[in-house]
Design a protein that fits this description.
alpha/beta; about 45% helix; about 210 residues; globular; seven-stranded mixed beta sheet; 2-enoyl-CoA Hydratase, Chain A, domain 1
Amino acid sequence: MFRRLAVVLSLLFTSPAFPAVTVLEKGSFIAFTDEFNPLSASRFIKDFLSTESDSVLVFMDSSGGDVLAGLRMIEAVRSAKAVRPALHVTCYVQSAASMAFYFVQLACDERIAGPTSILMQHQASVGMSGKWGEVQSRNILISQVIEWLDKEIAARLGLTVEQYKQAIVNDWWLVGQNAVKHKAVDRLGFVTCSVELTKAGQCPLVFLPVP
């Protein structure tokens, strides 16, 4: 009887209903919890390219930001993987909206989210001012970037470009298991911080300064 009970418990706790837990330790991950901008992108690229391990964990908790800065980050990750074929990038998504959503889809080999993690994508929004010719020229640039992103993201999600565009006409919100269903992440999982990391004030789960 006890052997049968042990087997049942083993099956329960190894099933997808009980996601694996990742413990963040000092030096074991790169946290990105900022808006995407030139400074935060430069900091991430420096940290990422300085990592010697072939297994890199990125903790993502961002509402998005500057697309061109985000593209620099994606390019840095893809270039590193081209030089180091064994390099594997796993991303744990706490939240990922807009540019952060792009990064998770285009830079991460494995995408993990928690049961209450939130992902969101929407149509690009831009505001431009200046000389009419310059505005038109910049619009051409943005159109090219968005066209490339739409194709890449649609392919990662297993959608046609038109299906993807339709999904994001109004803000497309995905939470936990729904993100798995729509192939925006690969599986569910939990993440926590070690006591040492938390006491050092470096746990990214603590998202506001506390005394």
